[in-house]
Amino acid sequence: MPYEIDKPxxxxxxxxxxxxxxxxxxxxxEPAYRGEYTDTKTPGVYSCRACGAELFxxxxxxxxxxxxxxxxxxxDSDAVELIEDRSLxxxxxxxxxxxxxxxxxxxxxxxxxxxxxxxRYCINSISLTLTPDEG
Length: 135
Known about the structure:
Structural class: mainly beta
Strand order of the largest sheet: 3-4-8-7-6-5
Order of helices and strands: HHEEEEEEEEE
Largest sheet: 6 strands, antiparallel
Radius of gyration: 14 Å
Strand content: 25-35%
Number of helices: 2
CATH topology: Metal Binding Protein, Guanine Nucleotide Exchange Factor, Chain A
Shape: globular
Number of strands: 9
Distance between the termini: 39 Å
CATH class: Mainly Beta
């Protein structure tokens, strides 16, 4: 699928740190409980670190105790794309930025999540940039 922002991998490598590149462009995962936004409660908007697209609001962030920032819904329904992921010998749903195709994390569904959507978007902190609300 073509993305609105489509750059050669050499350009992504030049613009991102090695750790950012690994997660955003190679679908890596940052270590649990070490991400910058895991426990953040600052009101604001979380954007894609690779392209700046607004992805999640702090009002949809919740404590899931999974080790990564968790949200129950994206900011807009068309902000992310969901792709079946059969890596690691299991079926999961990968979450990517719809604007640039960068890997963000995974989404899980189930009645066990204390959210209005029964979903947990488990997102790598390193794939996000938080812009705090003004005021």
